[in-house]
Amino acid sequence: MSEQALIQLTNAGYQATDKWLVRDVSFTVNQGEIVTLIGPNGSGKSTTAKMALGILKPTIGQAFRVPGLKVAYVPQKLTIDWTLPLDVEHFFRLTSKPSNEAQYRAIEATGIAHLLNQELRSLSGGEFQRVLIARAIAREPNLLVLDEPVQGVDFSGENELYQLIGTIRDDLNCGILMISHDLHVVMAKTDQVICLNGHVCCSGSPITVSQTDEFQALFGVRGHADIALYQHHHDHHHGADGSITDNHHAGCSHD
Amino acid sequence: MIDDFFVRALFAGAGLAVMAGPLGCFVIWKRMAYFGDTLSHGALLGVAIGLLFELHLELSVFLVCTLIAITLFMMQRRSSISSDALLGILAHASLAIGLVVLSLMTWIRVDLLGLLFGDILAVTHRDLAIIAGTLGISSIILAIIWRSLFAATVSRDLAEAEGLNPQRAEIIFMLLIASVIAVAIKIVGVLLITSLLIIPAATARRISTSPGQMMLASSTIGFSAVILGLTGSLNLDTPSGPSIVVAAVILFLVSMTPLAHQIRIRLAGSST
User: How many CB atoms lie within 10 A of CB B199?
Assistant: First the structure.
């Protein structure tokens, strides 16, 4: 049963008014498997995920979802208007009411117990991401889709989140489809990497993919170094400020 | 002794306020205030068409508003005009066409001021029955679509990905707005309907800590505004619509004072 395909795209493509956002994408997410979509900005990662989720209907090709699939989605962007009073606890019940124990476990796993009564608007970027993930886990999904799950999270928090995502797969035995432009993610327990740039450039296990020419052309040698050294680099154009923050966070171990 | 017409107006206004409370919250959460305004301007066209073809006024207003809502929905999906401009065009086009058609029908004497600003004298027993019916039906429908509609308000993609049907919920929501507008004309008039949706909801935001609480508070505040406004209207001989809106604005201003903060703290304490 562990090899059951949850979702499958077959030669799928999506055309906005006059432009192909992405085409010729094929991949499968099986139960218990982590698949990561990587690629530069505008390479069609989110579009691909939305086709897989059924939010967008492929212009060509097929999107298959196993009947009765229970999805949990962590979107890339979510803005809460100031007119909407919504605290974390109510947010958990957004699309379905989770069981008490599932909610409790999700809160424990993400360490957000102290935030339950806070309004979503008042949370920091990192707290907000953890709340989004907690809500998704509490649904006990068969398939978890995470669109850029570590954005706005500082370095130490990032590592924690990757660890967490691996744990979620083991606990729930669900399939995970993750989107990232951050190569760091790719190493973290991913089974399969799909490298996108308007189409599938290359795919396979993280090691295989990182050694292909297409991958190095897209991400450069430094991209490769990132993976090899298992280190984190941003394009730090802002020098002093950035490095000071990074050092600070590396040194302290809050949460 | 309070006049019978006043009691009718009070009940009508109360029913309207209770209905408008939750819907108004969604209107401001979804940033659709101008959308509501456009529909209510279209209501005048609905009145004109209703008189022209001798239809039930509420029915023809509801149909015209629905038509405008659907037009907007379709155009927003494919058109390159910003929805802001689109709303402005449709709002004033339908208001102007409505006024022109009304003035062309020389054989009917229309109380234009009553249409624009509300006329409590005009509330009949039949109107009361319609308002009660609409209130009942719209409450049930809102309860059914609540989860989809609310989830779509927070994130449309998320709602759809997790198996809800936000598009259906949003279309039904527009129909609910259209029906509120249809029954609100006599109480507040075409030009001020949106304020009954928005002002109590915005006031409620100041004292609420959860969505459900805000909808309840919005209904209560709207209800108070109706009572204050209609009483004032009766005593000062002012038009009912503007009087209710003035009362709502006064409540809103009160909510801007530190008093509202106290209420919120107390409500938050009692809800957990």
Answer: 27
